[in-house]
Write a structure and sequence with these properties.
Residues 475-494 are annotated as: Disordered. By secondary structure, the chain is of the alpha/beta class. It is built from 22 helices and 10 strands. It has 2 domains: 2-317, Up-down Bundle (Amino acid/polyamine transporter I); 351-506 and 525-614, no CATH class.
């Protein structure tokens, strides 16, 4: 819900910021009416969204001097107005004036709180850009620049209103000295573009992290910086925001109604953030219960008061962010709902180990040199799509790795902790499971060659560690190696029957196997289906033999095995479920980023098999 409102902010912020800056010309240029304001605002918005593809870094370098000049102008003009008109407005720091204000104005004071919201909105977009700038940079900028300058600007405008109360409709430009109007107008317009750009890039970050958590359809993400991992550009979101901004400006044609909508969106995000931070304090930080409850009581009560004030503006444009949030919420919920049902279907239809044992080490087909990387969402068991490959292909690779990409709730996963391996079936099957872990800020744009090299190196480390662990545990009782043994899971090796197979001593027909020695008749019989370095199922190859087989398979190349799945609701499902899955979710799957592109695999080495998931 909060993310949906933030995306709505990405539409409203550029619209109201640019339009507010341009509207200053209405009182300065004769004949510059509402139509001119709308046309100029649309032109500026087109320019703003067109430069997003260059990235936050380049745009930030270009805008940062302008932004510094903007805040310097705000502070200077505020101090000038304070000194010239009425410095006694500094008494407003006294909280008692809150009581006097409500006592004097009653109902009007309550509605005025909606305008007070607009004095603080926009600054929070800085904190949504944590993926684009460092935490320290944002803290210093807000505490030492943004907050003091805004405070001086608003106090200066209050001092001006003490002498010119009729200027409230155009207070910002009226409070600017006449000789500085045009320079301030240019800087204000550029600053509005910068504020809009900050919210646009924040929208990119939210969408990207929602995708990583499986709550948004897959979209193309372009990483625009080699130094900062969070600087991204999402083309389809950029152009969608641009179109919606133009539509909002064209329809409303006034900043008043857009401001009403903007306030509801901002306070809604604040309420959701306060609720989630409270949960984090209780469940993750494990803060003292009293202190954790004080946080929502203090901040939540203030935000609730403002929320009640801005809700009165729903009929006057406030419905717009609620409509945007509802649409995005439906998209995110539908995608997450369909993805969860698809995953449950894969878990339900996974292949049993007994079925794999019946097939034997040749898997009922011919094993040819090479490594097959079969992508699946399962972290346990053998996916049903593997049977489709066995039925469709005349041969299967000598080494099979079931790759499962998972995003974990940490920003970055180190390279040395990227892959988790586990053996699937007995040793002579040469099948492994690999969980590739990525943080929600990790960049998955590594070259496929480096990905393959890192995967093989990690697999070799796993095989060496597995051999060491088995040697250390060889004297334990068989009861220590059952399926539920935590010790076997900690070692990262299979349990149950797989362990029993691993514990076969390196003996055959009463003699020790010699690594690199002459091939037996059984080895010769299987040589047609496996690389020469792979031994038969009746023998347990040594570590060196298995590593040699892995290197031989690697030299033969990698093939990426992907499922081209279609998700359909069962015939006995409810009408609503059929509507959501068969139409809405299916439409999203057809139009979202394809699996090969999303997984960053080379198109020349892909094999796909179709499959229908009944959920």
């Amino acid at each position: 819900m909060g993310t949906s409102m933030v995306i709505g902010d990405g539409i409203l912020t550029p619209a109201i910021s640019v339009m507010s800056a341009v509207s200053g010309l209405q009182g300065e240029v004769p004949g510059f009416g509402t139509n001119a304001v709308v046309i100029v605002s649309i032109v500026i918005l087109l320019v703003l969204f067109s430069i997003q593809r260059f990235g936050t870094g380049k745009v930030g370098v270009m805008f940062s001097p302008i932004l510094a000049l903007w805040f310097f102008s705000l502070a200077s003009i505020g101090i000038y107005n304070l000194v010239k008109y009425d410095i006694t407005v500094l008494r407003a720091f006294n909280p008692a004036y809150i009581y006097f204000f409500f006592k004097k104005n009653n109902k009007e004071a309550w509605f005025a709180l909606g305008g007070c919201v607009l004095c603080i909105t926009g600054a929070e977009a800085m904190f949504a850009d944590l993926g684009h700038f460092s935490v320290r940079a944002i803290q210093v900028a807000f505490s030492l620049v943004v907050f003091p300058c805004l405070l001086l600007a608003y106090m200066g405008q209050a001092a001006y209103l003490m002498k010119h109360p009729d200027s409230s409709a155009r207070i910002f430009y009226d409070s600017v000295p006449d000789s500085l109007f045009w320079p301030v107008f240019v800087v204000a317009t550029l600053a509005a573009m910068i504020a809009s750009q900050a919210m646009i890039s924040a929208t990119f970050s939210c969408v990207k992290q929602s995708m990583a958590l499986g709550c948004f359809p897959r979209l193309k993400i372009i990483h625009t910086s080699k130094r900062r991992m969070g600087q991204i550009y999402i083309p389809i979101i950029n152009w969608f925001l641009m179109i919606m901004c133009i539509v909002v400006v064209s329809i409303f044609r006034s900043t008043t109604e857009i401001a009403n909508a903007y306030g509801i969106a901002e306070v809604g995000v604040m309420m959701v953030s306060t609720t989630l931070v409270t949960l984090v304090m209780l469940l993750i930080w494990q803060t003292n219960l009293f202190l954790a409850l004080c946080f929502p009581l203090v901040f939540g009560s203030i935000e609730f008061v403002y929320l009640c004030a801005v809700l009165s503006k729903i009929k006057e444009g406030g419905w717009l962010p609620l409509a945007f949030a509802s649409c995005f919420l439906c998209v995110m919920y539908t995608w997450n709902y369909g993805s969860v049902l698809k995953y449950r279907s894969e878990v339900r239809e996974k292949i049993s180990m007994d079925s794999m044992t019946d097939l034997g080490s040749t898997l009922g087909t011919v094993r040819v040199p090479g490594i097959g990387l079969l992508y699946s969402e399962l972290v346990q068991g053998i996916p049903s799509i593997f049977v489709q490959f066995l039925l469709s292909l005349p041969a299967i690779h000598s080494t099979i790795v079931f790759v499962c990409i998972k995003y974990v709730p940490v920003p970055v996963v180190p390279q040395e902790e990227r892959f988790l391996f586990r053996r699937v079936c007995p040793k002579d099957y040469h099948m492994f499971r690999c969980v590739a872990r990525y943080g929600y800020k990790d960049i998955r744009k590594e070259d496929h060659n480096s990905f393959e090299q890192l995967l093989v190196e990690s697999l070799e480390k796993f095989l060496r560690k597995e051999a060491q662990d088995i040697a250390l545990e060889s004297n334990l009782n068989d009861s220590d190696f059952d399926n539920d043994s935590p010790r076997s899971r900690d070692l990262g090796v299979p349990g149950g029957d797989e362990i029993e197979e691993l514990r076969i001593p390196l003996m055959h027909n009463g003699r020790s196997l010699e690594v690199g020695g002459a091939s037996t008749s059984e080895e010769t019989a299987v040589a047609e289906t496996l690389p020469s370095s792979v031994m038969s199922s009746n023998e347990d190859p040594s570590l060196e033999y298995e590593l040699s087989a892995l290197r031989e398979a690697m030299d033969s190349g990698f093939t990426y095995l992907l499922a081209h799945g279609d998700v359909r609701a069962k015939k006995n499902s409810f009408f609503f479920k059929k509507l959501v899955i068969n139409y809405f979710y299916a439409f999203m799957r057809r139009n979202c980023r394809a699996g090969p592109a999303n997984m960053s695999v080379p198109h020349m080495n892909i094999m796909q098999v179709g499959m229908t998931y009944m959920v």
